[in-house]
């Protein structure tokens, strides 16, 4: 976006211009829009000055700056083609506009035009009325999965190169979101499955996300049907991972491409998948399910006296044991780590579940005494009551008698419970083929898995860049909506890196959102329509730094000077 001044009828105005490629005409087409007057502030009558509204500057301006640094619109258009009407927004402009809306003021697509008109920074010189829900739907029906994946790889490469991200360790995880698509509406993405929200009445869409170790920056995603398994999703992502691997090497300008490390949780364990990752060019780091035979053996080794030792550096409060063994046909290093936070959480969960199990067993005892339950039904209900939170390992239940007259007795074995807490609770078993890494580096890399979970928390309802509630009614719209949502997550993460703040993403966006221009309509005494002038707000030190980094002055001139004079702020008076 190029901003300059032009004189029209004796008055100077600030103009924003952009050049877009017209594939049909085979040439560039210029677009221009008037941002406002550029002349000096007029002398006004404050008694006849009225406030007529506000315009967003800080949050939208920061994300627009990041989008310009990556040249997002061009990258998306090159990957996805010339979609959109001749005089309407391109697929790149539409995707970036929706990403800004999801990050700054989440709402339906019918409010997208009003959102764009309500901000001084602009992603396009087109009016907000051109960004409609119908235009979004028409574009979404033309874009393919392959084009969106090519755009993701190009954007990831640009982000790595521009913001110097470290992408040697990448974390992967999945979640799902609820949609409101009717059962009779055909589609491959919206499917009923195991929803984390427990809303079995709604069709869900899955999202797999690949995130850099630093900065919480999503680099690759995959939308999938709500009834797909996690392992199948990662298998489908392997081709994209291979392309991303090459793109990241090029983005970091590596002369000798090296292998990266993929971190994931136990739901993605598969020996075949481990081999596929090796072929793709990735090391593997995964938290094995505790029921896995290799994990049980590692826990037995860690339970031996002196096996668990305190780590060094920032993890000196963590104890770990390390062994190297064969996991099936694979040569792997296993690290058993002990987390006091996890242990306390599991203890609370066991206590709450044990209370409910005792109530259920008490009811079953009453039914047995009254002769109102059969043995088969009794056994089924006991298994259900003890099915979770390791209860079956220390709650001893004995069922005897005949089918018509069963006998029930039960007790909580305190010794078994203490043994469970000492050998299994609060422990994870990490499995990796990165044998040269230190134990501290393995633990640090695995703890980066929370980066993906943090992004999922942001994209849930009420968070930063929420995916839903979504009212898309076709697979194409769901795909482009998901693409724009992940793009919004990336913009927020990169803005946080550029600002260099330790504040959370929510706190940063709230602070930037407070930078708003107040529109006032004044009376100057001259003939003609009363001018509308944007007034800059009072900024704190952090907001002034953000205004400088994100170049917000170009949208609201004088913004960086909207501060009290040092003498006034300190209470000093100049000598008379």
Structure description:
- The longest helix has 31 residues, at 340-370.
- The protein is elongated.
- Helix 1 (58-70) packs across helix 15 (475-499).
- The chain is of the alpha+beta class and 576 residues long.
- Residues 564-576 have low confidence and may be disordered.
- The strands form four sheets. It has a nine-stranded mixed beta sheet with strand order 7-6-5-8-9-15-12-11-10, with helices on both faces. The protein has a three-stranded antiparallel beta sheet with strand order 1-2-3, with no helix packed on it. A three-stranded antiparallel beta sheet has the order 4-16-17.
- The chain starts with a strand and ends in a 7-residue tail after the last helix.
- It has helices spanning 58-70, 72-80, 91-104, 112-117, 133-140, 145-163, 230-251, 271-280, 293-302, 340-370, 375-385, 414-423, 439-447, 450-459, 475-499, 505-513, 541-549, 566-569; strands spanning 2-8, 11-22, 27-37, 50-56, 169-178, 204-212, 218-225, 260-264, 282-288, 309-310, 319-327, 330-338, 395-401, 406-412, 427-432, 516-521, 532-535.
- The chain is built from 18 helices and 17 strands.
